[in-house]
């Protein structure tokens, strides 16, 4: 029975990997054909001198990521099929430690093993792939520091949440899934405050945007958007990479907008304002709370499934587990992960809708869409992002619509020139090719 159940789980995990590999292949082929067909648009609108470099970057990243994923799944399958997972759980149950401490020890071991497995891939990505394409600015010392701090954080935060849930299992065996769900949701809320103030500064410096042209631009777009938020920061992203981005995080007095210094360097004033307005929309339109609510519903389903797994005696017998809930939870999570992957197209739809709504808010705030379209083109070109993902790949992986689709949508609503006659650097722009 052990072999049958383990092989069934292995088949599920490997099947998901086969699906993901097929999606990667389709995405690379589809993107390559589309980029070559839209060569002129990629060169002119995205300012990419050599579209083949963009394709090579995507290939390198995809192959490395999928290789890492296959190795990780192979390691998990080997541990489960060989019965090693059951043996480790049994050994922990015989240590005499409290059940929660046993579970936290098992979790800590999994975290460390995962970090050790991913470290060589992360190093190769940083110092070979990112270096080859001119993105890496990171030193070996800084990379090692990030690895150590990230591992400690994963152990501490994972141990706190996991330990709290396991204590609930012991103290409230009849309702622990409800308590566990509340703990996870509460932790998500807490992290929205703790992350920007405590965790992010461990990795980057955040400087409030002071007096000057950039501050004037920020205040101008805030006034247009009817928004009050003094916490606007510029992050030293260039310390590690030349990739550019921006994000909104937190709520209440802890909410803040973060602009990468690379983004500030790469974009003109109006494009930066459009990006800022886009990020503000995620608060103005309650996207943060809607995403949190959707995540809470998803977590409720996961905890209901874990409740069923941990109360089903077959899982203990099938995988040779001791009568410890934490041991069954580990198996339950292995089953849950593929289900979450398969339902990703449904969960991504909410994020896609929010991104379109944020684009609309940015265009309305600016009074034109050309600034937002220029920002999108700059982000795609400077980051060598694939502008034409395969529809199936996009459904499973993308939380943002493809950039050509976003640009065309904005131009359809505001006119071919984005409603921006006279905006420097935008004469209507080249025709946007069909969305992938």
UniProtKB/TrEMBL annotation:
The chain crosses the membrane at residues 69-88, 147-169, 175-195, 292-310, 325-346. Keywords: Hydrolase, Membrane, Metal-binding, Metalloprotease, Protease, Transmembrane, Transmembrane helix, Zinc. Residues 43-204 form the CAAX prenyl protease 1 N-terminal domain. Residues 211-412 form the Peptidase M48 domain. GO terms for biological process: CAAX-box protein processing. Zn(2+) binds at residues 278, 282, 355. The active site is at 279, 359 (proton donor). It comes from the Archaea. Residues 416-427 have a biased composition (Gly residues). Residues 410-436 are annotated as: Disordered. GO terms for molecular function: metal ion binding; metalloendopeptidase activity. Its cofactor is Zn(2+). Binds 1 zinc ion per subunit. InterPro entries: CAXX_Prtase_1 (IPR027057), Peptidase_M48 (IPR001915), Peptidase_M48_N (IPR032456). Belongs to the peptidase M48 family. This is M48 family peptidase. It comes from Halobellus limi. The lineage of its organism: Archaea, Methanobacteriati, Methanobacteriota, Stenosarchaea group, Halobacteria.
